[in-house]
């Protein structure tokens, strides 16, 4: 097999190995990197591994949580602190995938994968890279420039705690139940003040090459009471500025047609 | 390519073996150790037929870098039966016609074992969730779900550890 594996115990060493080679990939849970190895991907020849237990810890910090990049979806689903993210982690893959797939890896998932990152985008998380002196990158900026960050080592993600229960909602739309790949995923964070939405963040997965904000929807909801009229206006703006991709799961046309329907159901709190 | 020595436990017995760099666990179990029970299906994490338990939890062996299992406990379908006696799940699968072509069966059995070890009396929904990462193209799933519920009802699945 044409790959070399480099294993490190210190994050600095792993980060250096990753940044010094354009043909190195970092191994998280293996669901992306080993998949590429099995498919004969020739774009990398080195796998970098890190054996640092702190890479897989969840810490409460200030008004949020810092989740190690090596934390698995199963660990998120079981975490008492991250209970608001459990419904998201539970719809990623099947049980075996959830025991392997990591928060850090999810940030780099392409195509119809990466639903967890959609939730992180709606919640306004920051991504902490090795060697960046403690200042995280807003996840919006990280995703916009994701390819460039592939040579950086993601250490953790800092997720703000939702200000009120129920302000954060998530929906994964798939054709196969209970486990299926995403037609789209939608995450909304709509904190309210005085009965009106203030600082709406709405994010989609599978509606662009990487998770994106639905700025039209956010504009339609900001400053409004979350009533039927506002929800209708939000649904009408569901795909504003977006050009959803066509792939094996759904066509761009279909995604455009149904995005407003699913968004409306999520906002209205309808269970499906 | 350098080979690396690793030690791990397969179905309770210790294995010491050289693995190639980048080799996945499934390949090591099949070609290296000679346990042919876990199957190679998609190699992409979609089908679940390579499912094995690592420290009691289901993992996809085709997506597990072999050298990461140093010192850990790996279980496959090959370790389910005791002598001539089949595991209660195997019996239920046989009696309930839960295997047709049989290619998904090793993964289904390990996913089901992980469930019953943790939750000896699962609901139907919990069974469906437990095998949601395993694809079967023959049975339509109903006989598999029923067999797992039967095995749970018959009890004794835990005795097999």
TrEMBL record, chain A:
<protein>
    <submittedName>
        <fullName>Xanthine dehydrogenase family protein subunit M</fullName>
    </submittedName>
</protein>
<dbReference type="Pfam" id="PF03450">
    <property type="entry name" value="CO_deh_flav_C"/>
</dbReference>
<dbReference type="GO" id="GO:0016491">
    <property type="term" value="F:oxidoreductase activity"/>
</dbReference>
<dbReference type="Pfam" id="PF00941">
    <property type="entry name" value="FAD_binding_5"/>
</dbReference>
<feature type="domain" description="FAD-binding PCMH-type">
    <location>
        <begin position="1"/>
        <end position="164"/>
    </location>
</feature>
<dbReference type="InterPro" id="IPR005107">
    <property type="entry name" value="CO_DH_flav_C"/>
</dbReference>
<keyword id="KW-0274">FAD</keyword>
<dbReference type="InterPro" id="IPR036683">
    <property type="entry name" value="CO_DH_flav_C_dom_sf"/>
</dbReference>
<dbReference type="InterPro" id="IPR016166">
    <property type="entry name" value="FAD-bd_PCMH"/>
</dbReference>
<dbReference type="InterPro" id="IPR051312">
    <property type="entry name" value="Diverse_Substr_Oxidored"/>
</dbReference>
<dbReference type="InterPro" id="IPR002346">
    <property type="entry name" value="Mopterin_DH_FAD-bd"/>
</dbReference>
<keyword id="KW-0285">Flavoprotein</keyword>
<keyword id="KW-0560">Oxidoreductase</keyword>
<dbReference type="GO" id="GO:0071949">
    <property type="term" value="F:FAD binding"/>
</dbReference>
<dbReference type="InterPro" id="IPR036318">
    <property type="entry name" value="FAD-bd_PCMH-like_sf"/>
</dbReference>
<dbReference type="InterPro" id="IPR016169">
    <property type="entry name" value="FAD-bd_PCMH_sub2"/>
</dbReference>
Automatic annotation (TrEMBL), chain B:
<keyword id="KW-0408">Iron</keyword>
<dbReference type="InterPro" id="IPR006058">
    <property type="entry name" value="2Fe2S_fd_BS"/>
</dbReference>
<keyword id="KW-0001">2Fe-2S</keyword>
<protein>
    <submittedName>
        <fullName>(2Fe-2S)-binding protein</fullName>
    </submittedName>
</protein>
<dbReference type="GO" id="GO:0046872">
    <property type="term" value="F:metal ion binding"/>
</dbReference>
<dbReference type="InterPro" id="IPR036010">
    <property type="entry name" value="2Fe-2S_ferredoxin-like_sf"/>
</dbReference>
<dbReference type="InterPro" id="IPR051452">
    <property type="entry name" value="Diverse_Oxidoreductases"/>
</dbReference>
<dbReference type="Pfam" id="PF01799">
    <property type="entry name" value="Fer2_2"/>
</dbReference>
<dbReference type="InterPro" id="IPR001041">
    <property type="entry name" value="2Fe-2S_ferredoxin-type"/>
</dbReference>
<keyword id="KW-0479">Metal-binding</keyword>
<dbReference type="GO" id="GO:0051537">
    <property type="term" value="F:2 iron, 2 sulfur cluster binding"/>
</dbReference>
<keyword id="KW-0411">Iron-sulfur</keyword>
<dbReference type="InterPro" id="IPR012675">
    <property type="entry name" value="Beta-grasp_dom_sf"/>
</dbReference>
<dbReference type="Pfam" id="PF00111">
    <property type="entry name" value="Fer2"/>
</dbReference>
<dbReference type="GO" id="GO:0016491">
    <property type="term" value="F:oxidoreductase activity"/>
</dbReference>
<feature type="domain" description="2Fe-2S ferredoxin-type">
    <location>
        <begin position="4"/>
        <end position="80"/>
    </location>
</feature>
<dbReference type="InterPro" id="IPR002888">
    <property type="entry name" value="2Fe-2S-bd"/>
</dbReference>
<keyword id="KW-0560">Oxidoreductase</keyword>
<dbReference type="InterPro" id="IPR036884">
    <property type="entry name" value="2Fe-2S-bd_dom_sf"/>
</dbReference>
